[in-house]
Amino acid sequence: MGLGLDCRDIRADKQSFDVSALGNPISVMTSQDHVTTTTTTFTVDICRNLKKAKGIPKDKDCTNGSRVCGITRIIDPSANAPIINDTIPIAGQYIHHGVDIDAQITRLKTSSSASDREKEGFRLELHGLKHEGKKQKAVIEFLCPDKAEEEGPEERDLSSIPAKRKAVEHFVVEADDNDEDEEDHSATGEVADDGHGGTLTYKSYDEVDESKVLRLEWKTKYACENSQGNDSEAKKSNHWGFFTWLIIIIFLTTAAYLIFGSWLNYNRYSARGWDLVPHSETIRDIPYIFKDWMRKVLSTIQGGGSRGGYSAV
Question: Which of 18, 74, 283, 285 could anchor a disulfide with 229, C-beta 3.0 to 4.6 Å?
Fold first, then answer.
């Protein structure tokens, strides 16, 4: 599947997935500690373009049309707040740049990889702009969680996160929120709770061939093929088209007319047998009417080459 992405009907190998419930910004963060701490927050919204984030200047915010975006910050102990160092347009619908998201979907159960076939879900590959000369791409693996995981992720223990990473989380959450139209893309660590019993996990952001590839793993019940709304066969059996309903309505209307008409003829005229049926005389004449019509058609066709009754002199 290429071009656009409809998260209500993501189709892979005749299987449909509805992940529209996950259509809100969610972020994961990774960090590197040296003299200063460098953090990169990757924000994803699979259903719509990301909006302006809180506390980020417009010139350093994600490019318009982004659905996956990375923002790098530097935390200097001597500074009052993290410094935004870089913004990475990883994937999106960049109309003004002539770049399409080009969504490519793989159903894991029917993948060519043996290891993939042991999983349930799908792999979503999204494309973006070039950054620092490298094409950007996001690969998100949506996995059906085990029964034990379906109960929901455990509450995240902030004590396992370095103090400097807590600082950047606090800064993003407590940033200026006077603009009611802004969305909160607050960083939540390398594993994020999606708010629907699932988790988004950062895997890697590495150079592959001539591209930079962000890999994420999203464990969610919406990646299960038998989950509500994802069963393609159930959708087919439950979805009746316009013509099916039209035929049913015509049949019920005709049956109701015949039953009521027969009842009326029985009570009003004491009719019996064939005379009970409404317009029984007309119905009996239908074969003869059809025969007469066919005779006229044939005579018209056969008489098409005549010369109107005039003979040559």
Answer: 18
- Whole-angstrom distance, CA of residue 15 vs CA of residue 158: 39
Handedness of CA 44, 49, 51, 52 (dihedral sign): positive
Contact 103, 9 (CB under 8 A): no
Compute the distance between CA of residue 253 and CA of residue 257 in angstroms, rounded to an integer.
6
pLDDT digits (tens, 9 = 90+) for 173-214: 333 344 444 444 443 458 999 999 999 999 999 999 889 999
The neighbour count for residue 250, using CB atoms within 10 Å, is 10
* Alpha-carbon separation of residue 159 from 113, 155, 183 (angstroms): 38, 12, 27
Instruction: Tell me if residue 201 falls in helix, strand or coil.
Output: strand
Question: Residue 72, Cβ neighbours under 10 Å: how many?
Answer: 16
Q: What is the pTM of this model?
A: 0.63
Distance CA 273, CA 114 (A): 70
Residues making up the chain, counted from first to last: 313
Give the Å distances, CA to CA, from 225 to 47, 105, 230, 293: 19, 15, 6, 57
